[in-house]
Amino acid sequence: MSNPLDDNAAARDAILARVRAALAHQGKQPQPAAVRDARIARRTHGPRPAAPDDLVTRFLERATDMASTVERLPSRAGIPASVARYLDALELPAAIAAQKSHRGVCWPEFADLDWGGAGLEIEARPTTGDDRLGITGCLCAIAETGTIVVTSSAATPTATTLLPDTHIVVVREGDVVAGMEDAFERVRVRHDHMPRAINMISGPSRTGDIEQTIVLGAHGPFRVHVLLVP
């Protein structure tokens, strides 16, 4: 009687031999490291849809498709007033409104803005988990999908994009790229080493697990508001 374990091993070796033959690999040696590294360094892109001439307009359209709201501002200085207008327009439940929804946190890069002049109480610190408003920037934005790309660092705490009910993200026009491939190239350029986390945010958190009904705010913010600045 044959040993089933031997039969399994033989079958496995036969399958792997066919794979190696199809890939033109000889024996059981892995691909040479130099060949592998050269292929990775080329970073060849596969087939991609044609990108529009106006990436910014395309990004705003796709972000809206993903249930984000958007506003285009003439300057960075207008961010606090825009945030105040947006918050005033929200129809929040009385219990939430009573908790001073105009309080929040922001990334350090926005600490210099005149938040108090707009009637806001914004602290430049990482969220502690009970903040209802988080204001962040981003590494870049993807026009093809309306996606915000955020990389983790001490100056860009990603919890601020995940824990508050409302996430307001500031996007610079020059940081809008065509597709996912361009976003990862931007990561390589901006970071000496791969960041510990890369978050890609396409609109508010949502789920359709229960009766195929889309529910926002299931695993993160209920709303994402994009402010586009020069």
Summarize the structure.
With 230 residues, the chain is an alpha/beta fold. It contains seven helices and twelve strands.
Summarize the structure in words.
The structure is a single chain. The protein is α/β, with parallel strands linked by helices and 230 residues long. Helices cover 30% and strands 21% of the residues. It has seven helices and twelve strands. It has helices at 4-22, 33-42, 55-65, 79-89, 94-97, 159-162, 180-190; strands at residues 69-72, 103-106, 121-124, 133-136, 140-142, 147-151, 166-172, 176-177, 198-201, 206-207, 215-216, 223-229. Strands 1-12-7-4-2-3 form a six-stranded parallel β-sheet, with helices on both faces. It has a four-stranded mixed β-sheet with strand order 8-5-6-9. The chain has a two-stranded antiparallel ribbon with strand order 10-11. A hairpin with a 7-residue loop joins strand 10 and strand 11 (215-216). The radius of gyration is 24 Å and the shape is elongated. The termini are far apart. The model has no long low-confidence stretch (mean pLDDT 86).
